[in-house]
Specification:
The protein is 0% helix and 42% strand. A hairpin with a 6-residue loop joins strand 7 and strand 8.
Length: 142
């Protein structure tokens, strides 16, 4: 497998913002760095404003999927004098989500993958395993 095909994005990602009743859709694709060593592959993904509790990582048939869904944060705004309800002067943060899927190389040991999260950076370490060498089959006379 070509190492460049290691991390092909399979799905587009979206960030939905709602402002004054209008919906605006823009693409949100977290930036990713991938490094290969003789013993492993390492993926670093920028996820500012998120925590480890906001992120899901799944592996299904050699496909690694990283996704996140962040709901609107309920906060109090300035109280409106007329009705006593919160009145926002500016409220741009609403809801965002993304899902990125990557095809892993055949030599990734999926049982040993581990992930850490620090300072808005998700790190996924994928150790390599030895691939089985080609086997020659002897042909017998019938």
């Amino acid at each position: 497998m070509n190492e460049l095909s290691l991390f092909d994005t399979l799905f587009n990602n979206t960030l939905d913002n709602v402002f004054n009743g209008y919906t605006c859709r823009t693409n949100f694709v977290p930036k990713v760095d991938v490094k290969e060593t003789k013993d492993s592959y390492s993926l670093d993904m920028e996820l500012p404003g998120r925590s480890e509790n906001d992120v899901d990582i799944e592996i299904d048939r050699n496909t690694l999927t990283i996704s996140s869904k962040k709901e609107e944060v309920k906060e109090e705004g300035k109280k409106d004098k007329d009705n006593g309800k919160d009145k926002w002067l500016i409220k741009e943060r609403r809801y965002s989500s993304f899902s990125r899927s990557f095809q892993m190389p055949e030599d990734v040991d999926s049982e040993s993958i581990r992930a850490t999260f620090k300072n808005g950076i998700l790190n996924v370490e994928m150790p390599r395993k030895a691939l089985a060498a080609p086997k020659r089959i002897a042909i017998e006379c019938a």
